[in-house]
Amino acid sequence: MHQYRTHSCAELRKDHVGETVKLSGWIHRKRDHGGVLFIDLRDTHGLTQCVVDEGSPLLAEMEKVRAESVITVTGAVRERPGETQNSNMPTGEIELYIEAMEVQGAADVIPFQVAEDDGAGEEIRLKYRYLDLRREKMQKNIRLRNDVIFEFRKRMREKEFQEFQTPILTASSPEGARDYLVPSRLHAGKFYALPQAPQQFKQMLMVSGFDKYFQIAPCFRDEDGRADRLAEFYQLDLEMSFVTQEDVFNTIQPVIEGVFEQFNDFTGTAHKVEWHDHIRYEDAMMKYGSDKPDLRNPLEIVDVTDVFARDDVEFKAFKGVIEKGGVVRMIRAPQVADQPRSFFDKLNSWAQGEGAPGLGYVKFENGEGAGPIAKFIPTAAQEELKKISGATDGDAVFFICNKEKPAAKFAGLARDAICNALPEGHEAAREQGVYKFAWIIDFPMYERDEAGVVDFSHNPFSMPQGGMDDLENKDPEKVYAYQYDAICNGFELCSGAIRNHKAEIMEKAFGIAGYDKSVLEAKFGGMLNAFRFGAPPHGGCAFGIDRIIMLLADEPNLREVYAFVMNGQYEDQMMSAPSDITLEQLKDLHIKLDLPKAKVKAEKAA
To answer: Which residues of 538-564 are buried (b: 16+ CB within 10 A; e: fewer)?
Structure first.
């Protein structure tokens, strides 16, 4: 007989009754029934109920062994009495009567329960992550992660993509987020950077003639933490040569759709997978107030600036903003006029919590407008609002007024807040049981900040749609790029582009954004030189694997789909990282610390 086990803890069935077997695992639960001790033994495969009979010489010893200790038990498989069988367990028809037991690893008193959710906070869960990972939910999530990545690899290979591993230590480059820097011991004063993405390497693979590349790529960005963003993350990264934007979509969309369809019922509720028509960036910002809209929300935003600019409309709060170049956006909420006053008050309080003065609204009842600002809008103007939005009696319309960019952003937030406030079953409530995808296209290549300075709005390596002609003859804010995102249920899952593969166009594009040719050569010289030796047209994208798994598992936080992860302040409480290093290590790296005064003061006090 094997030293540790003959079967897993999910394997034994009625057919095994009478056999002597050996199991190893963790003590999931212990239950004392008047001198008969029941032990649920757990391994990664499942549970088996084990029994220590009354009068057994093992009884006293087993009572001392704590939950989560690892033990090996040997004994006979017996059928459970009819009334005690558990049809919810694969092993529920049998139990193992323990004849011998060996403790492989004794457990101390555990800091939180593993067998059930006891409400332990994130801090303690991450500190004892190895215990947290023993929980059934976490085991399921990590297995889902493994299965999804396996499927991606299989499906990409079927489409004749080759898998590559690109460098982790590379050069720092301005790609929109802060780099994680690594000091070089051999090259004093110089630093490597961890890749924000394998962008330049995958493009140079296309220049090398490999045609189809993919990678389950680790990426690192020194950004502030939030629920759907981590410092270290993984993406399904791909690049293709001799392709148009539609070729990229047609290639990767079936892969993503297939994975979502395969795992659509992971949570126990089947989900449909729907791809919507492409949405231009400007249309997305106008209709949804976001470039990653949740299309399950049926509410849409419309522009009503002209209505409030009319001479017969006397709402000075909006007119003053319009005169300074502002806009007014409106959201129609169908059949909410009969909602109690608290419905509207809560939305107004929400808006104030977001830093706005409030959320003005008009309710249409019995052919007339009612509400706090209705008296400032004459009947003719109200009829125009109805015409623009399609509002009818029983509906309400909500207003946002500000400069165009902040108005679009706040309208997007308000759109979701209004949808969230709707009662369950309402005709405009957020649709459930569906993954709604779309490609967001035609992103502007550049943007201006409040000081008028031009910079790239997204990926700096994208090809302008009009090539050199657009760069030379158009206002930078009117130049569109072959840049695209894939969105699903309010998340950006993918970003990509048809790349700029011509050195002269790249030099011009970076020059408009204020990058001197010498800077371009210093930061991107390797790729720029590669383009001078014959580069094919190429493009690709990268899907965030972690966000995909988060959606499939219906988890609100990326930390629930990683095995080992840092907290929101990017601290690894289990491994105590980041950590101080010794003066000898700093000297070896030719580094001296210049710490913030507050930290120096705190260290001296300690």
So the answer is: bbbbbbbbbbbbbbbbebeebbbbbee
Please report which residue ranges of 467-544 form alpha helices under DSSP H.
467-473, 503-512, 517-531
Task: Kindly list the distances between the CA atom of residue 468 and the CA atoms of 61, 291, 472, 504, 509, in Å, as whole numbers in the listed order.
Answer: 81, 27, 6, 8, 8
Measured distance CA(194)–CA(198) in Å, rounded: 10
With a threshold of 0.85, does the pTM exceed it? yes
Inter-axis angle of helices 404-421 and 341-353, nearest 10: 140
Give the residues across from 600 on adjacent strands: none
148: tokens are 């999804």
Alpha-carbon span 149 to 333, nearest angstrom:
41
HSE toward the beta carbon, residue 298, CA cutoff 13 A: 10
Segment (H or E) for 445: none
What's phi and psi for 75, nearest 5 deg?
A: 175, -175
What is the structure's pLDDT at 519? Answer: 84
Q: How many CA atoms lie within 13 A of 602 on its CB side?
A: 5
∠ CA 389-393-396, rounded to 5°:
55
Q: Are 385 and 391 in contact (CB under 8 A)?
A: yes
Q: For residue 430, give the DSSP letter.
A: P
Q: Which residues, 6+ apart, have CB-to-CB distance to 493 below 8 Å?
A: 256, 437, 485, 486, 487, 543, 544, 547, 548, 551
CA distances from 279 to 345, 386, 470 (A): 33, 25, 22
Residue ranges in 108-135 assigned as alpha helix (H):
122-127, 129-132
Mean pLDDT of 22-31: 97
The tens digit of pLDDT for each residue in 516-553 reads 888 888 888 888 899 999 999 999 999 999 999 999 99
Say how far apart CA 358 and CA 354 lie, in whole Å: 9
> What are residue 221's phi and psi, to 5 degrees?
-140, 130
Q: Please tell me the least confidently modeled range out of 216-225, 380-389, 419-428.
A: 216-225
pLDDT in tens, 322-375: 999 999 999 999 999 999 999 999 999 999 999 999 999 999 998 889 998 999
Report d(CA 429, CA 421) in Å as an integer: 9
Q: Can you name the residues that pair with 364 across neighbouring β-strands?
A: 369
Say which DSSP state 80 is in: P
In sequence order, what are the residues at sequence separation of 6 or more whose Cβ sits closer than 8 angstroms to the Cβ of residue 115? 28, 29, 40, 67
Cross-strand bridge partners of residue 182: 192
